[in-house]
User: Which sequence fits this backbone?
């Protein structure tokens, strides 16, 4: 190819030059404008279309304060048939072995979960607590010592056990409480509400803590799951390798079914 020099004009004018752009646009627009006029898509000058003014945009109302009710929540209230939110909950941690593995899987699948933590275990594993919080997961209070007979204790003991987890993560909103062993007596319900924490139950329980095998955990969740369901799983209180294995199957399966994970 023969070089023509820097100042010579190219054989074909660049349509992106100012002149080409202007001329091309003006020429192309005229038929389109005429067609739009003919179709009534735009009004000729001076003849404003008799359309009502659009409604003003809604003024964003402040989010209502969370209402805590003395009712054990097992399902999220749903917004409609298209709402397929579920809540994954992990009890009895934090655990330095299993909690990070579960966290990694949740993050890899873009899922969120609620960790129902035990105060004495938080005291032992503060770095794991920090990882859970920094990953944007939700903390639920699961008492200080996981005493399943807590309901029979004196009011001061119950109050101290219920308040313990939130006191360990200042600045983190701990808005739910789950009774140890799911033992919801009126004294526990009342203490939870008095501390501004919604009693958090579950609708789906694959009994992973009994270690029935990953396939059984997967099958039970698949059988029981439904929109709004709160799912009970465990990251602490024992070897949770089966729960971790089950999640490797469940997290992609839930996404395929159109479920999304939410905070309670
Ligand atoms: Zn528990």
Assistant:
């Amino acid at each position: 190819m023969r070089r023509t020099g820097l100042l010579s004009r190219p054989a074909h004018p660049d349509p992106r030059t100012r002149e080409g752009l202007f001329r091309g646009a003006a020429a192309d627009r005229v038929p389109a404008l005429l067609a739009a006029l003919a179709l009534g898509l735009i009004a000729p000058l001076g003849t404003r279309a008799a359309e009502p003014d659009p409604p003003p945009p809604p003024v964003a109302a402040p989010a209502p304060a969370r209402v805590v009710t003395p009712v054990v929540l097992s399902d999220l209230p749903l917004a409609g048939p298209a709402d397929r939110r579920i809540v994954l909950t992990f009890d009895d941690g934090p655990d330095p072995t299993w909690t990070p593995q579960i966290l990694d899987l949740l993050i890899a699948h873009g899922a969120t979960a609620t960790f129902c933590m035990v105060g004495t275990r938080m005291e032992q594993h503060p770095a794991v607590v920090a990882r859970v919080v920094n990953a944007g997961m939700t903390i639920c209070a699961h008492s200080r010592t996981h005493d399943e007979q807590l309901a029979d204790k004196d009011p001061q003991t119950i109050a101290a056990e219920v308040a313990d987890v939130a006191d360990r993560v200042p600045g983190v909103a701990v808005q739910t409480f789950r009774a140890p062993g799911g033992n919801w007596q009126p004294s526990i319900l009342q203490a939870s509400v008095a501390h501004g924490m919604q009693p958090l139950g579950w609708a789906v329980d694959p009994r992973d803590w009994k270690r029935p095998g990953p396939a059984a955990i997967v099958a039970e969740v698949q059988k029981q799951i439904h929109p709004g369901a709160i799912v009970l799983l465990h990251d602490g209180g024992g070897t949770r390798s089966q729960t971790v294995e089950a999640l490797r199957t469940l997290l992609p399966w839930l996404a395929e079914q159109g479920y999304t994970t939410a905070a309670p």
Observations:
- The radius of gyration is 30 Å.
- Confidence is low (pLDDT under 50) at residues 1-49.
- DSSP finds eight helices and seven strands in the chain.
